[in-house]
Amino acid sequence: MITIQKVRNALSTVPHPRDPDKNLITSGYVRNIQISDNAVFLQLIDPNDNNCINKVKEVVQKLDGVESVEVKVIASPLAGGPLDKVKSIIAISSCKGGVGKSTVAAHIAREMAKGGYKVGLVDADIHGPSVPALFNLKNVQIKTNNQKQLIPVERDGLKIMSFGFLLGDAPAVMRGPVVTRYIQQILMMTDWGELDYLFIDMPPGTGDVQLTITQTARLSGAVIVTTPQTLSLLDVARGILMFEKVNVPIIGIIENMSYFLCNKCDEKHYIFGENAVHSLQKRFGVKLLAEIPLQPQMTLSLDQHLSNDYIMLAVEHMKEALSHLDELKSGVPDIKFDDQNVSVRWADGTEVTVSNKQLRLSCRCALCANEITGEVLISEDDIRQDIQPKEITPLGNYALGIVWNDGHSSGIYPYTLIKDLANTP
Description:
The chain is built from 13 helices and 20 strands. By secondary structure, the protein is α/β, with parallel strands linked by helices.
């Protein structure tokens, strides 16, 4: 059976044409692998090397069961554009509106700029741009340079660009293709100059607009913002899967509005539920960057220059995670599966094996477990006797996404869970 993992393993043997120490997978040059019957389709960022393209076709064609290979060469998102001087591009994302994503993105960008880094912030939420209000930027007139590039607004060393500067108070009523074109223009036609970090305040959701951003800018990673509320947590899996599909590693999760800290008794009040963040870590195996409480500071304009210890902690954890980005790409283990078991082997030689039935029964997605109480909703009797994976997709270096032959595909299986299952008698 042809799987995405087998294709990735084959492509990991092809060295990057300009950096022999890396392969096409770890360098992020392979995008959007798709399998239909016995045909394999993938996108390859132009390596400017015909031998490399031919090698890609050759190694995939050698896989058992592959009858045809189609490689679509796409332009490098950074080649020759204003983003080529940006070292790291980070998406701040949420799959649901109203979780405070824009506020968190703005605070993080400002904190990084205060730390002496060259930082940019682009507000890509065309239908609801929040950044101008967060920085108390009113009646801004955007100018262009001699190359007709937009000149970002600077506030305390932070470069800012928002569709709100161009739109003003008028509503953005436009169709999807027009929206994606405007987003591409804001990203690629702004004179960012040299930056250490460019943060993209993503529009909420996981649709075409979000995919356009991942294809326009070569993202270094993504931070997902959520809240303890059940509806927000339900959407986190969708965000993780979207970014993994386009080869963008998840840097970590920030839980906003985690609790209310009483200023009189210092007691934490979990208004939206307690221990949700721990269920996130257990379910997805993704690093928690910070738990940000409900506090007046987060509602104030950022031009008041107030420090926030929780944001500072999130920034420190994010920088630490960014320093290990290569591990996020190269730490993917080898996966093997058959009609009985799933085996996972890491580069250090550690290998574990879990039965298909045991792994399927461990799923804690919304279909298999109550998101509020944690009650398991499936039993051994619900699992078919011949249960086995149809396809397994590694999600960074933290989990597996599995499509089962019973049609179930919404589960995420952290490596920590798989190791625990393997060690359970």
